[in-house]
Amino acid sequence: YKGVVMDVLPGLQSVFVEIGLEKRGFLHINDVSLFTPGDIALFHETRRSPCFKSREVQKLFKRGQEVIVQVAKEGIGMKGPKLTTGLTIPGRYLVLMPGTPRIGISHRISSEKERRRLRGVVRDLKPREHGFIIRTASQGKLKNDIKRDMDILLKRWDTIINKAKNSRAPVLLYRDVEMVPRVIRDIFTEDIDKLIIDDKDSYKEVKSYLEHNLPNMKDRLELYEGSYPIFDAFKIEDDLKQLYKKKVWLKSGGYIVIDQTEALTSIDVNTGKFVGNKDHSKTIVKNNIEAAEEIARQVRLRDIGGIIIVDFIDMENEGDRKKVISKFQEFLSNDRSRPQIHELSQLGLVEMTRKRVRESVAARELDPCPFCKGEGMIPSPSTLAIMLEREINRHFMMTGKKHLTVKIHPLNIERIKERLQPLLSKLSGYIGGSVTFVGDYGLAMDEVEIV
């Protein structure tokens, strides 16, 4: 985005930037790149000036200043998006870092010989003023393949530059490609056996792309023409429904409970119906390992980020604990968000962090329950009866009316029906009049309306 600085906050060493979204973006001094693209004046001072080297936000920015930023993390809850001036533009084999003259390489490329080769190829091809991250997919690729990807990215950057120069802020300069091309670029790699598409237009588009760019992968593409919806045929619909449930059952009969809050996510492991064999310790280890595998899967499926606390079933043996943690790390090794696991705490909890760049699936796709307003609980029948008694007494004392109609949700009338007659008698005697209960589906489970 080309944005406009709206507020400079020296105390927080941050600025708020208007980029045209619902909430203003937040840019901290630590997210201001030491390098800036030479052909865009991101700051009034150059990076060689004493002001830039001082790293004081009030000397770098002023209200009304235009700045080129990228969303590093989507807005979550009441917070606006987190911004950075360290721009990155992803391709299939490379990620362009405009104005950052360095070369990075994916940690998943383990061969030192291949790492040296790829660094050499990129070093020979790249412009001096720009940098690149070498992606895992570049492993084994020829120089021409990498050059083609680099040329596409540099051309894309030129387009962004031209739009920035000729557009008034705030304005969107570049958005990543749509879902299907993004899947091809980021996920459809050599270790994927098959890509199945049920839309003919998308299938033709992907087929054409593969024929021109990845001819060795085109035979892995398949058009689905089955009689059942594709998600049903491959049992994906069941997994989607599972995403919204707190309790996830394991094959052995145990289960995990996932609770997401704004601060962190807690995951509790339980044996449930799993009784195992006669050796109790082996049963617990087996249950914990199975739970660890499912937890690794669920955090990816639900896109859970931030702090995650896992409460495995207590294990007395140190060797068992290390075995479970080792397996957990193995299950998480393929996660693109690179979770970091810490050792078991003194309370027997496993602490882990997972990069959060957007809201979780639950936060994006679910709304708070209109009955409990997202609390997950409603008043019990006895609590509800006491609450109604207080509300009616309060209304009588304030208005003096002796004939009252009390509106509550119809389910609540059913829930307190055993307490209703004694409650009516008590209230009628107290106010010296009559009380009538009426069901109203427009009220929440904890709402009362008295007329």
Question: What tags apply to this protein structure?
Answer:
451 residues, alpha+beta, OB fold (Dihydrolipoamide Acetyltransferase, E2P), 5 domains, 6-stranded mixed sheet, 4-stranded antiparallel sheet, 14 helices, 21 strands, 36% helix, globular
Can you give a write-up of this model?
By secondary structure, the protein is of the alpha+beta class. It has 5 domains: about 80 residues, Nucleic acid-binding proteins (OB fold (Dihydrolipoamide Acetyltransferase, E2P), Beta Barrel); about 80 residues, no CATH class; about 45 residues, no CATH class; about 120 residues, Aminopeptidase (3-Layer(aba) Sandwich); about 70 residues. It is about 35% helix and about 20% strand. A 6-stranded mixed sheet has the order 13-14-15-16-18-17, covered by helices on one side. The chain has a 4-stranded antiparallel sheet with strand order 3-2-1-4, with no helix packed on it. The chain has a 4-stranded mixed sheet with strand order 7-8-10-9, covered by helices on one side. Helix 9 runs parallel beside helix 10 and helix 12 packs parallel to helix 14. The chain is globular, with a radius of gyration of 29 Å. The two termini are about 55 Å apart. About 5% of the residues have low confidence.
